[in-house]
């Protein structure tokens, strides 16, 4: 039986590339998304991969959403916590809502998905949880105290849950992407982005597929001895 994988924020950007890569590996893939219905429809039309709508920042919605996927598609064996938002701004300009929204979705979403899916993985003694962190969680970033804190939290969450999952055959790893050519990065002001790209030794933005192949490897049978690790895919911008 093919493994069932879910990718949160899976209908666009890095998440979409991850869905396609895992499907190419022979998995049964499901995408989750929160808001953009038109993009989700286009994604499903183009790929045939079903898209389930809920907000991963909401605990009850996430438990219900994952239960629905388990019932309609099958119990979830692989979770890719990719969903994330930015609300960039310097601390002086950042609202409390900008702070809590980013923490609730980017970091809380990992907790909610793990709560929903870990019991089945433990029971069957096999599972993969792959959390998408960020270079900005490792190095910090001007204007991102919320996002950097959430992503840094993801790296700690990964190492803690990896210790709990190991004896059940559940690996938990993180990927820390650098600046990738997605809508999220396109929203960075052009003059700021130019300066960031100038600091990437490889000399360009990354591509979503370059993150997706890393996810595929960590999700594979070959990844069974890798747990609690962070794979940095950032063109050499931050060596950690
Ligand atoms: N270090 C030091 N100073 C900086 C700085 C930096 N990195 N960036 C800006 N400044 C300075 C500016 O030079 C400016 O100083 P002066 O007024 O003396 O000229 C001051 O800080 C204010 O800068 P801005 O005019 O840019 O301020 P703003 O309030 O208009 O915008 C900002 C602030 C929203 C943070 C904007 O700079 C910005 O969008 N920066 C990019 C943030 C970023 O990289 N986000 C990543 C999004 S993608 C992502 O997160 C994916 C991932 O995982 C990698």
TrEMBL record:
PROSITE patterns for this protein: ADH_SHORT (PS00061)
Coiled-coil residue spans: none
The Enzyme Commission number assigned here is 1.1.1.36
Q: What top-level branch of life does the organism fall under?
A: Bacteria
Domain Ketoreductase positions: 3-178
User: Kind of enzyme, top EC level?
Assistant: oxidoreductase
* This protein's record includes keyword Oxidoreductase: yes
Cellular component (GO) terms are: cytoplasm
Any one of the GO BP annotations: monocarboxylic acid metabolic process
Keyword list, A-Z: Oxidoreductase
> Which protein family is it in?
Belongs to the short-chain dehydrogenases/reductases (SDR) family.
What would be the name of the gene that encodes this protein?
phbB
SUPFAM superfamilies attached to this UniProt entry? NAD(P)-binding Rossmann-fold domains
- What is the name of the protein in this document? Acetoacetyl-CoA reductase
